[in-house]
Write a structure and sequence with these properties.
By secondary structure, the protein is α+β, with helices and mostly antiparallel strands. It has 2 helices and 2 strands; from the N terminus they run E-E-H-H. A two-stranded antiparallel ribbon has the order 1-2. Pfam families: DENN (PF02141).
Length: about 70
């Protein structure tokens, strides 16, 4: 699915796409600023136990690639 979403031009374009009933937006940050995420982490925190949550955030901090998979 990710390969089907075009990359936006940094700081200019916004790409919208739908996954099931959810409309998602992808926007590249300007080249001279840090990216921002305007999403809630509450569903993720509710789904993961403490050990997996710690593993996830450790992976984020050391900039590992992360793939989340769910049946829901």
């Amino acid at each position: 699915m990710v390969s089907n979403v075009p990359l936006p031009t940094p700081g200019k374009d916004r790409v919208l796409f739908a996954v099931e009933n959810c409309l998602l937006s992808v926007e590249a940050p300007p080249e001279d600023s840090l990216p921002q995420a305007d999403i809630s982490l509450q569903p993720l925190v509710q789904c993961l136990d403490v050990d997996n949550l710690i593993k996830l955030f450790t992976s984020v901090l050391v900039e590992k690639r992360i793939l989340l998979r769910s049946n829901k």
